[in-house]
Description:
By secondary structure, the chain is α+β, with helices and mostly antiparallel strands. The chain folds into four domains: 3-39, no CATH class; 53-99 and 214-367, 3-hydroxy-3-methylglutaryl-coenzyme A Reductase, Chain A, domain 2 (Alpha-Beta Complex); 103-206, Hydroxymethylglutaryl-CoA reductase, class I/II, NAD/NADP-binding domain (Alpha-Beta Plaits, 2-Layer Sandwich); 373-415. Helix content is 49%, strand content 19%. A four-stranded antiparallel β-sheet has the order 3-8-10-9. The radius of gyration is 26 Å and the shape is globular. The two termini are 50 Å apart. The protein binds (R)-mevalonate. (R)-mevalonate is lined by residues 74, 257-258, 260-261, 264, 360, 364, 369.
Amino acid sequence: MSKLEKLDYLSKFLGDPEKIKERFKDFWHQDLDQQKVFDDFSENTLTNYFFPYGVMPNLLLNNKTYCVPMVIEESSVVAAAANAANFWLKRGGVKSEVISTQKVGQVHFSWQGEKDELFSLFKIWKRELMDKVLPLTHTMRNRGGGLLDLILKETGPEDPSLYQLFVTFETCDAMGANFINTVLEALARELVNLNKQIEIIMAILSNYTPNCLVRSFVECRVEDLVDPKLGLSSEKFIYKFNQALKISHMDTYRATTHNKGIFNGIDAVILATGNDFRAVESCGHAYASREGRYKGLSELSLKDGKFKFSLEMPLSLGTVGGLTSLHPLAKTSLELLGHPSAKELMMIASSVGLLQNFAAIKSLVTSGIQKGHMKMHLLNILNQLDATEEEHERVKNHFCDKVISFKDVRDYLRTIH
Ligand code: MEV
């Protein structure tokens, strides 16, 4: 079916077919060529789904200032990140470094023979396998990347017949999923050619990239944390902040929410720049469990009178290829960031995650998050109730010192008519 036929068919099952069809069409791009680009991203596309695209200004990162695009629907996330960026702008900004950029792929296979035989055969095969895929890695090698290494591993004691080629790659400014999967599938074919006893199970990149790592931190002298808006002495603030970090390392329930706050920032940048937030999240959560227990990803150190808050995590990102060059707003986001390399984008995204986490913990241990949230929540309620500009002002004044609920706002609106 064509897109219109699909819409006609589907809308028949809904209350008011004409109205539903119009609603879907309302969100089509006016420029049909542009719409075609979106339609072709995925299958069975009916329309586009809007999310707010905002910016976090004033990210001072490694002495350079960025205005960071963020795509997120949750109220207060951009405001909180912007607030933290401003706070640290006056205290030296964020420092960040990329520690490593290695990507991973696996060819899983089964081998019913002797383990020692396979390992000695692999010593002979390794060079041949690597040579066979050279034509596929040519362009990437010219860019400074390619296939780094290939090792044979047993997959685990649960099934001794399962082995894998564990392959490492450097993909430069590309996230590299297509490149990696193409090379892995070629390696799988070559492996079977080398020995018919091998049965390939699957060949696929791994989204767990613990060696594609970035570290960001903010640091200042304890006395420089003083901020009248905190409503706490800096000693008390640091004490509670430190306890909050400890809890995130001790308790999975808290760690999950703590890391969710980090991903509020990271995902928003990932989405704005056309990267894969599912890959980044699954990797981040696996990394958070690397010691056998799921923990908060950030760390606080208090040494020599200094407050140092840091975040080290894997981020596998690209600034060329894929959606980054197809989605018009992803392209614009990269332009807004000054056409960063993948490494620079890793540092930007991790800084936003760190700042977001700082903002969340700061509010949680001081005023609580509802204060900031409720302002935006009120706005959403007023929009839902189609309130006029004048009503917005009156309701905001009325609720400035009250607890907000949908019912109370609706009832108050009724009283002012
Ligand atoms: C809300 O989206 C995120 C927070 O819950 C994060 C946190 O608790 O650290 C505020």
